[in-house]
From TrEMBL:
It comes from Neiella marina. Its cofactor is Fe(2+). GO terms for molecular function: catalytic activity, acting on DNA; demethylase activity; dioxygenase activity; hydrolase activity; metal ion binding; oxidoreductase activity, acting on paired donors, with incorporation or reduction of molecular oxygen. InterPro entries: AlkB-like, AlkB-like_sf, ALKBH3, Oxoglu/Fe-dep_dioxygenase_dom. Pfam families: 2OG-FeII_Oxy_2. This is Alkylated DNA repair protein. Keywords: Dioxygenase, DNA damage, DNA repair, Iron, Magnesium, Metal-binding, Oxidoreductase. GO terms for biological process: DNA alkylation repair.
């Protein structure tokens, strides 16, 4: 697996880009397969929208509730709690279960749950965060499958501020593993020129 050295000052604020396959940044590992679901992605889009029940959600910020800027759905054996909201447990529909098996094989990890995010257009977004809820375990592996409009996905190393930008294109799979959720934060910034929707499935393991 290629290993990328820590950045010099000049490199620190430039974006790195991922190459196909696994790569390590210190103790964090990223897997990137831009063509993971190419060929079936249009079919998948239709079938997923038919099987998944998307909802608006809220988050609590400084004691105030706000609508989240995207739609979402949660499927897994346990409820998912984040930012003061609880999404109830529910069984994965067959298509999500089959995609989860394929992602487990590629990510070499076990998953039992999926958070579905639907971005209606480029105004919908997700702010800087890490998927580090204790229920996800010590070093969670997260597999992120994208369909529809390509969107930039930014990663920043908490200490060095080193940055990675990946264009999450239709049918691509990004895996975050190792110490990623401790050492890096990620975000999906607004892109006001994008008018098409995007679906993102992040597979996780809550069973421990
Ligand atoms: O839509 C994306 O690619 C980002 C999703 C994400 O960051 C998350 O579910 O934690």
């Amino acid at each position: 697996m290629p290993t990328i050295d820590m950045p010099t000052n000049a490199e620190r604020f430039q974006f790195h880009h991922l190459v196909t396959g696994w790569q390590a940044f210190g103790n964090s590992r990223f897997g990137w397969w831009p063509d993971f679901a190419i060929g079936g992605s249009e079919n998948l889009w239709q079938q997923l929208l038919a099987q998944v029940t998307l909802q608006t959600g809220t988050v609590q910020v400084f004691g105030k509730r706000h609508s989240i800027p995207r739609l979402q759905a949660w499927y897994g054996p346990k409820p998912y709690r984040y930012s003061g909201e609880t999404l109830p447990a529910q069984a994965l529909p067959p298509l999500l279960d089959s995609l989860m098996q394929q992602c487990m094989e590629r990510a070499q990890a076990r998953f039992d749950s999926v958070l579905v995010n639907y971005y209606r257009d480029g105004r919908d977004h997700m702010g800087w965060h890490s998927d580090d809820e204790p229920e996800l375990g010590a070093n969670p592996v997260i597999a992120s499958l994208s369909l529809g409009a390509a969107r930039d996905f930014d990663l920043r190393q908490r200490q060095s501020k080193q940055r990675i930008r990946v264009s999450l294109t239709d049918g691509s799979l990004l895996v975050m593993a190792g110490r990623c959720q401790h050492e890096w934060q990620h975000a999906l910034p607004k892109r006001l020129r994008i008018s098409e929707p995007r679906l993102n499935l992040t597979f996780r393991n809550l069973a421990g």
